[in-house]
Amino acid sequence: MHAIATTAYGPITNLQTIDIPKPASPKGHDILVRIKACSVNPVDTKVRAGTYDDYPDYYARSPPPPQILGFDAAGIIESVGPNASSSFQPGDEVYYAGSPIRQGSNAEYQLVDARAAALKPKRLDWGQAAAMPLTWITAYEALVERMQIRQGENAGILIINGAGGVGSVASQIARRVLNLPVVVTTASRDETVDFSKRIGGATHTVNHHCEDLAAEVQKLKLNVPIKYVFITHTPTSAYLAPAAKICAPFGKVCSIVQDREMPMYGTEFMAKSLTFVWALLGTKPYYGVDVESHGEILSDLARLVDDGTVTCHCMQKLKLDEQGLRKAHEIIQGGKAIGKVALEF
C-alpha cells in the first residue's frame, strides 16, 4: 500500500511517499480501515521534527522511521478482529483517533483499536469527519474529565486560542453541551474573532496578545465568575499568572501544551487554592487505561453533530498525498490556522 511517512525526524521534506505491505488481518480488538480521509494536528509536526516530549519515552516506544504519522481518520472497515465483531462489521463507516505508539493514518489502510472508533456522523463528509476526533476527545477530556465542569454550572470559562482546532470545539462543549452561561475565548484577528463566535459559540472574546489579559477580562464586566481556564496555546507559562488572577477561588486551570517552565510561585495559585491539571488524549491508549471511553465520546459526538448541536470546524481540505501532507504541515507550523485542515483521497 501507499503511505506518506517521515523517513527521518527533521524538516517537512522528510515526509515522503513509501510503499509498504498492507497491514495483516486484524486480531483482538483491532479493525482494518480503508482510509478515506485524515487530518493534521500540531502533534504531527512535533513528532516529525523529533521534538515531541509529552511522554519521556515516546521515541523509544513509537515506530521508528519510516514512521507513518496521523491520529485522526475516517474510513470504511474492511475486516474486524474477533473481539471487535460485536461492535462493527465490514462496510461500516467509522471515524477515530488512533494510538500515539502505532503507525498512523497518513496511509491507505490502518489497523486501529475498535474501542477508540465510532460510526461516522451522517451529516459529515469524509474530510469533516476526520477533522473531529483528536480535538473533540482532547477538549472533552479536559473540560468534563479533568476539570470536571458540571452541566449548567453558574460559572464561566476562559479558553486560550478560541479559533484553534481544540479551542473551537472546547468552546462548543462549554456553551452547547455543558450550557455554561459565559464562554470567553481569546482571538487576535477579525477572522478568528468571527470564527470563535460563529462556529465556537463563544459569548465573549479578548485578545491574548494584549499586555494584561486579566485586565481585558475584567473589562467585560461578567456577571458570573471565571472558574475555569483552558490553555490550548503555547507556552503554558505565559498564561499561568493571568489565569491565577482571572480564576475565582477554588477554580481550575488545564493545559494541553508543553512547557518546561511552570512559574506558579508568586501568583495567586496557592492563595486561591487553584488546581492545575494536564490533559493529554494519548494517556489512555499509551497506558492501556479506559480505552473504550474514546469510542463512547465519539459516539456521543456523532449524535451531537447529526442533531445540529455541534458544528464541524474543518476549514480547509487538501489532497491526501505527499504534496498535500507537506502543505498541511506548513499551515499548522505557521501558527495561523483556523479550525482544522483535513486531507482526502
Please characterize this protein's 3D structure:
- With 345 residues, the chain is of the alpha/beta class.
- The chain has two domains: 187 residues, Medium-chain alcohol dehydrogenases, catalytic domain (Quinone Oxidoreductase, Chain A, domain 1), CATH 3.90.180; 144 residues, NAD(P)-binding Rossmann-like Domain (Rossmann fold, 3-Layer(aba) Sandwich).
- 29% of the residues lie in helices and 24% in strands.
- It is built from eleven helices and 16 strands.
- The strands form three sheets. Strands 3, 5, 6, 7, 8, 15 and 16 form a seven-stranded mixed β-sheet that branches. A six-stranded parallel β-sheet has the order 11-10-9-12-13-14, with helices on both faces.
- Helix 6 links the parallel strand 10 and strand 11.
- The mean pLDDT is 97.
Order of helices and strands: EEEHHEEEEEHHEHEHEHEHEEHHEHE
Secondary-structure-derived class: alpha/beta
Q: Categorize the overall geometry.
A: globular
Percent of residues in beta strands: 15-25%
End-to-end distance: 13 Å
The quaternary organization reads as: single chain
Number of domains: 2
User: How many DSSP-defined strands?
Assistant: 16
Q: Give me the CATH fold name of the largest domain.
A: Quinone Oxidoreductase, Chain A, domain 1
- Summed over residues and divided by their number, the pLDDT gives a mean of 97
Radius of gyration: 20 Å
Query: Main β-sheet: number of strands, strand sense, barrel status?
Result: 7 strands, mixed
CATH class type of the largest domain: Alpha Beta
